[in-house]
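Appendix B, example 12.
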Amino acid sequence: MFEISQTRQPRGVVKINGTPIWGWVSFDVTVNAYREADTFSVVFAMKGLPPEHDVAWFAEQTTMQIEIWAGFPLDPDHYTSDDLELLISGHVDDTSVNLVARTIEVTGRDLTSLFIDAKTAESFKNQTAAQVVQTLASRHGLSVDIKVSDASSLQGAFYQIDHAIATQGQTEWDLLCSLAQFVGAIAYVRGMTLHFVDTPGDDNAQQFPVTWVNPDVAQTFRANVANVKFARSLTAGKTVTVTVRSWNLQQGTSFSVSIPNTPGPSAHPGKAASPTQNYSRAFPNLTKEDATKRAQTIYNEIVKNEMRATIDMPAANPSDFDITYRIPITGTGTVFDQTYFPHSIRRSMSMSGGYTMSIDSSNHSDEVKEAAK
């Protein structure tokens, strides 16, 4: 568990095309859960920009690569990006200029966008999962980090990859996510590296406990965070059924798999019955085992949106807190006391607001059970 620095002063550096650009007044970096690109925005004050990077320069740019660094340097008056941690490396998608406010804002995504924006109709026949990951990463100049415990999935011929994962004009990112789902892994980009690794387990996941003490007679509360807000989706908590349909063109067969196999009238025993929500998905050329895994994954993702917690607090370095952490919350005296899984972490730094962090997290309630894998 990390400790929040209360004494060291936060600092940030913004680089465009490898060059530090001063004059920024605020930035936001949002790290999303897997399958989504991380995003950023940076606001510059025109009067603070160096002459060689004025508003005319920004207006002329057609491509910009950005890096945002932040942290707590030992000497806050003398530091470089080497004294900070990299929050994001990505490409600018949009530049906006506000002549009245005298500001320039750039927004964009991390290098996951390279795969999201690239369509592919390739077969990758007889290639292993590891070979496909390496091929796609090399195509965009990224290094790879492959750590999957099921070595047979990576080293053997990735069972009929030429039809099990047919690239019918999908994006390279869709292909990577499909590969990851088949081997029980996750795919994500951090900096200049494409990671293809085992899904983090609860057994070895690091935790950041949030403790809340309800107000006493003096109406004061105590907590180790600045704020925590809860919400409950009464829709996601109802009975959910996921059906995956598949067909094999070569064999001329089709089938469907439903999770749970025998849905009951209500997700909450002893309570009034509620209508079942039916989710149907179709994927070509799956085996029944693969279709079952897909249905289980989709089901678990849906029900995990039932209970939600948003936590605001002073920012921590990415090396001290990331999307893989678990957040047990205690002390509210309600059903909101449980463990939550982060699905986005937003770090913000500004001249007026300092360096803060907002975490959106979710999980299902104890009354709703995940599908067994």
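The first strand starts at residue 11 and ends at 16. The helical segments are 55-60, 112-116, 129-139, 151-155, 161-164, 172-182, 288-303.
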